[in-house]
Design a protein that fits this description.
Elements: E1 30-31, H1 32-45, H2 53-63, H3 67-77, E2 80-81, E3 88-90, E4 96-98, E5 110-111
Parallel strand pairs: 1-5
Antiparallel strand pairs: 2-3, 3-4
Length: 114
């Protein structure tokens, strides 16, 4: 019981491809060590924001991987990408996952450590 006109055409792809986030600037210049500390604090507390731990783990792995591997990770975990830079995602049950840009890329005002 289907409509023959509703089948996917060859080449159609409903999977949103991820990309690097746009450039961003932290409120004040920060070092790589400070950025890594911010990231670690976020990932340690992320499961407390709701959603499933295994999805948070997959999102962390994707955030720390190159784009090709990141795409494979989110696809295999069943992550639904709302924003193609991974800042807004959902799991298959509809739970929302908000990722700050600082876990996905480096700011334009990153400074060298002394």
């Amino acid at each position: 019981m289907g409509c023959t006109g509703s089948s996917r055409a060859k080449g159609d792809d409903f999977t949103k491809k991820i990309r690097k986030p746009k450039s961003w600037k932290h409120s004040e210049p920060i070092t790589k060590t400070q950025l890594m500390q911010m990231r670690e604090e976020f990932w340690e507390t992320a499961p407390h924001y709701g959603g499933r731990k295994e999805i948070w783990d997959a999102l962390r792995a994707a955030a720390e991987a190159d784009l090709t591997l990141a795409q494979a990770i989110v696809d295999s975990a069943g992550v639904i990408i709302q924003s193609d830079d991974l800042t807004i995602c959902y799991d298959e049950r509809g739970a929302k996952y908000d990722l700050p840009k600082y876990v996905l890329s480096e700011p334009t005002n990153l400074i060298q450590e002394n």
